[in-house]
Design goal:
By secondary structure, the protein is of the alpha+beta class. It contains 8 helices and 13 strands. The protein folds into 2 domains: about 210 residues, Glutaredoxin (3-Layer(aba) Sandwich); about 40 residues. The chain has a 5-stranded mixed sheet with strand order 6-5-4-10-11, with helices on both faces. α2 crosses α5 and α5 packs across α6.
């Protein structure tokens, strides 16, 4: 099912990224192998450590390493895009922004986002323009230092993409990058905890994924309870859904707690109290 989902995403990518160039090539049929797609897709490297010493340039033109943002304090959402992408990247980042606006968790104080361009020719002014646009769209106080748009050289981009399992290729005929739509969640120390492969993200799913990535350090007690006792991530629907076995387990635990509580109460009761329900002897029932 993971492979089927990736294939659907690849197909959507080609449709979106190839629309403006469809007149230059013939139709592609379902049973044909598209050679240009070799290497495009998502490989889920869960629990792998992102190299924190990779060097990039932030939107203000300063040299930075990933360690500046992945410093053990907050969970991170990381995305690989490019700023001149004709459509798919903006769909992904717009969907992410819309989902974040549905959450009570705040960008900047509860979590951060790192967006890295996969195009080594893109420079800080373009990153700054995109940063300003998406932060304006998010429009929440205190978020200005929470979403980081980076550029870099090919070596560091490739290393990061390989670590994240983000496969993409450059199409010299169109000058565009073929890639899928995905966002990745990192623990505060930089280990990959979750992938979401879509262009739409529900606020509840983002919140639970961030609580999961933070290892319970952010969110409410209710969030933690729901995540570990009621919900599990379903890759087919790309969202967190109620888990039957978790709910059954909780029902079993509650049943045991109630039984144990009843036994404890009975064991603490006075024996005369337990027998108070017996029928008293009648004082007038004696026959002389």
């Amino acid at each position: 099912m993971h492979r089927c989902w990736s294939n659907l995403l690849v197909g959507a990518t080609i449709l979106i990224c190839g629309l403006s160039h469809s007149s230059q090539a013939g139709p592609t049929f379902a049973d044909e192998q598209v050679e240009a797609l070799d290497g495009v897709g998502i490989t889920q490297n869960l629990e792998d450590q992102v190299p924190l010493d990779l060097s990039f340039v932030d939107a203000q033109g300063n040299a930075v390493t990933l360690a500046k943002y992945i410093n053990g304090e907050k969970p991170i959402i990381i995305t690989l895009n490019y700023y001149m992408c004709p459509m798919l990247c903006s769909l992904t980042l717009n969907g992410l922004t819309t989902g974040m606006k549905e959450m009570k968790l705040d960008l900047g104080s509860d979590f951060e986002i790192v967006t890295v361009s996969i195009n080594p020719d893109e420079k800080p002014p373009l990153a700054l323009k995109n940063q300003a646009g998406y932060l304006k769209q998010y429009d929440r106080e205190g978020s200005s230092d929470g979403w980081h748009f980076l550029t870099g050289d090919q070596k560091n981009i490739t290393t990061l993409a390989d670590t994240l399992g983000f496969g993409y290729v450059f199409d010299p005929k169109t000058g565009e990058y073929l890639h899928t739509s995905s966002i990745m969640f990192l623990t505060p120390d930089g280990k990959i905890s979750r992938y979401m492969n879509d262009v739409k993200f529900q606020g509840r799913d983002l919140r639970l994924a961030l609580v999961e990535a933070s290892e319970g350090k952010i969110g409410s007690l209710i969030d933690t309870f729901l995540l570990f006792n009621c919900y599990q991530y379903d890759p087919d629907s790309n969202s967190f859904t109620p888990s039957a076995w978790k709910l059954m387990r909780m029902a079993g635990i509650f049943t045991l707690v109630i039984l144990a509580g009843g036994i404890f109460i009975l064991s603490r009761m006075n024996p005369t109290d337990r027998g108070s329900g017996s029928v008293p002897q009648s004082s007038t029932g004696l026959i002389s």
